[in-house]
Design brief:
Strand order of the largest sheet: 1-2-3-5-4
Radius of gyration: 21 Å
Distance between the termini: 62 Å
Strand content: 15-25%
CATH architecture of the largest domain: Alpha-Beta Complex
Shape: globular
Number of domains: 2
Number of helices: 12
Order of helices and strands: HEEEHHEHEHEHHHEEEEHEEHHH
Largest sheet: 5 strands, antiparallel
CATH superfamily of the largest domain: Aminoglycoside phosphotransferase (APH), C-terminal lobe
Number of strands: 12
Length: about 325
């Protein structure tokens, strides 16, 4: 006997409904799915028009904090309240300590109905509910105009600026400075395995790098690629904020540089004209990007990919391609 589409979400969906004040059975699954770090279901809510996305995050580590708040809810709060102004650390702390069930307008993504605070709601899988957007992914619309709009969307995200909050949304106020953070990242990736791929001289050059800090700390999405952008009538909307944090705006473009579009083969890889279109859209919206910071964050992205035990099967760049590109950046930065 086959199971109903909502069986896997039953308990967590019921708890979410109770937190939001809905009677039992008011939240019903229309279509279930999942992948990556979250399970997602299209649901309907009794008494409310339209459909909604119920997103239940999968636990990644056994020691994951139980009072973890889904980052899409935090980003909703930040983009709604603090766009064009520095973030107030006290207000952010107040939000993180707030009770569940709050309504949060999500101007750049969707309208969040609520968020979960951990084990009291759904075991070790926090949840969020947002409006369901029936829109194609940028993956399916590889044209210059759409990528320019992606750049404009990222400028709006980066309008949320931080002063004294570094480096992650879920650890505000730790006071980790840029030199400490970038030094740690370079040391973390400077392994014998990396030396075998790009040479020991290049690794030693990486360890000597002391790039200047970014001109601003902003809200970054952290995983900008065409599968995480929806092409809506109102413009591009970003989804999947699990990698969001506080950092340099160039960080978002570093991922997009090498995960720009999906080709007919089904593989995702670089596309310079479309990447340049996103850069152009960002700059036309008033955004500023530093070329050296861009190279630093591209290098960090490549080092992270080279540290993987195996390369993802859905990308065009092989380990040899990644190593060659990393070596080119090391020489430019060194």
């Amino acid at each position: 006997m086959s199971s109903a589409p909502g069986d896997a979400f039953g308990e967590s969906l019921a708890r979410a409904g109770a937190v939001l004040g809905h009677p039992p059975g008011a939240l019903r699954v229309l279509r279930a799915g999942g992948g990556g770090g979250a399970d997602v279901a299209k649901i309907e809510v009794a008494g409310l028009p339209g459909a909604y996305a119920f997103r239940r995050r999968k636990p990644i580590t056994a020691d994951e904090p139980e009072r973890w708040i889904p980052k899409d809810a935090v980003c909703a709060f930040l983009t709604h309240r603090f766009s064009h102004a520095p973030v107030d650390a006290a207000a952010l702390a107040g939000f993180l300590a707030a009770p569940t069930g709050r309504d949060l307008p999500f101007r750049l993504g969707a309208d969040l109905l609520g968020y979960g605070l951990g084990s009291a709601l759904t075991g070790r899988s926090p949840w969020s509910i947002a409006t369901w957007l029936d829109a194609p992914r940028l993956l399916d619309r590889p044209d210059v105009a759409a990528y320019a709009d992606l750049g404009r969307c990222l400028k709006a995200v980066h309008d949320v600026r931080f002063e004294g909050l570094w480096p992650e949304l879920d650890r505000p106020g730790e006071g980790v400075c840029w030199d400490q953070w970038i030094g740690f990242m370079f040391r973390h990736f400077a392994t014998p395995s990396l030396a075998a791929q790009i040479g020991q001289d290049a690794v030693e050059t990486i360890l000597r790098l002391r790039p200047s800090p970014p001109s601003a700390l902003v809200l970054v999405h952290g995983d900008v690629h065409p599968a995480n952008a929806l092409v809506c009538e109102q413009g591009i909307r970003m989804i999947d904020w699990d990698e969001a944090g506080v950092g340099a705006p160039e960080r978002d473009f570093a991922v997009l540089r090498y995960r720009t579009r999906q080709f007919e083969s089904g593989l995702i890889g670089p596309d310079r004209p479309l990447f340049d279109a996103a850069i152009d859209g960002y700059r036309r919206a008033g955004g500023q990007l530093d070329e050296r910071q861009m190279r630093v964050h591209q290098l960090l992205f490549l080092l992270k990919q080279l540290a993987l035990p195996r390369q993802p099967r859905h990308v065009t760049m092989t380990a040899a391609d990644l190593a060659a590109e990393a070596l080119r950046l090391v020489r430019q930065l060194g």
